[in-house]
Amino acid sequence: MQTEQLGRIYPSGDGQITALRPFSHTFAPGLTAVVGPSGSGKSTLLNLLAGFDTPTSGRVLVGGNDIHALSEAGRADFRLANYGFVFQSHNLVAILTAQENVEFPLMLAGIAPKVRRDKARALLSQVGLESRLSHLPAQLSGGEAQRVAVARALVTDPAVLLADEPTGNLDTRTGQTILELLLRPASEGKTVVLITHDPDIAALASHRLRVRDGEVSAEL
Ligand code: ADP
Ligand code: MG
C-alpha cells in the first residue's frame, strides 16, 4: 500500500482545517504503528487509506489500484476483497451472533454457507472463542467482542489490516491479547496499520509513523 501526496483539508466554518498535510509513503508488510496526540490526524489518515473518506489531494494505491478512482460500489468490493478493519469499539451487528458476525463479510463476498460457517468457526477458535459462537454481542465482554471483531477482520484473509485504537477501550492485559492477534498477520507478511496511544505497543512495531498537527513523518 502506498500514498502519493495524500492530503485532507476539511472546511470549518468560514475557514479550513488541514487535517492531513500531503505525504507520500510506502507501507511495508508487517506492523506499522501510527502514533501522535489526539486530534493530530491519525484517524483522518486511516479513513483515507480505507477509502471511507475522500482526499483533497493525492491518492492511495493498493496493489497498483488507485482506490479513490473506483466507483463507490467498486470501492466497496475492493475493500471487501483486500481490507480488514478493527475499530476502537467493536462495531459488531447487535442482532447477529458472534459466528454470524464473522460470517458476514464472507456472505457479502458470496461464499457458500458451509464454507463460511467453517471459516468463521476456525477464526473464532483462533481467537479463543470457540465456546461463544452463539452469543450475541451484548452477551460478550468488551475483550471478547473485540476478539470477534478481529476474527471478522481476518476471516477474508485481507492483504491490508487497518486498526484504529483497537485496544483503546480495553484493560492492558486484554489489549495485549488483541495486539497478539494483530501481530500474527503482520508476521505473515500482511500490511497491518495500527493507530495506538500506547508506547509499549508502538515499540513492538516494525515500522512507525508519527503524526503531529497533520504532518506525518516516518520514524522507523
Ligand atoms: P486523531 O485521530 O489523531 O485524534 P483526527 O484525524 O480525528 O485526529 O482529526 C484531525 C483533525 O481533523 C482534528 O482537528 C479534527 O477536528 C479534524 N476533523 C476530523 N474529521 C473531521 C470532519 N469530518 N470534519 C471537519 N474536521 C474534521
Ligand atoms: Mg482518532
Q: Could you give a quick summary of the protein structure above?
A:
It is built from 7 helices and 10 strands.
Task: Note the main attributes of this structure.
36% helix; alpha/beta; Rossmann fold; 220 residues; binds adenosine-5'-diphosphate; single chain; binds magnesium ion
Protein model, in words:
It contains 7 helices and 10 strands. It is α/β, with parallel strands linked by helices and 220 residues long. It has a single domain, classed as P-loop containing nucleotide triphosphate hydrolases (Rossmann fold, 3-Layer(aba) Sandwich), CATH 3.40.50.300. A 6-stranded mixed β-sheet has the order 6-7-8-3-9-10. Strands 2-1-4-5 form a 4-stranded antiparallel β-sheet, covered by helices on one side. A hairpin with a 2-residue loop joins strand 1 (2-12) and strand 2. The longest helix is centred in the last third of the chain and has 16 residues, at 172-187. The radius of gyration is 17 Å and the shape is globular. The chain starts with a strand and ends with a strand. The mean pLDDT is 95. The site of magnesium ion has 2 residues, from helix 1. The site of adenosine-5'-diphosphate has 12 residues, from strand 1, strand 2 and helix 1.
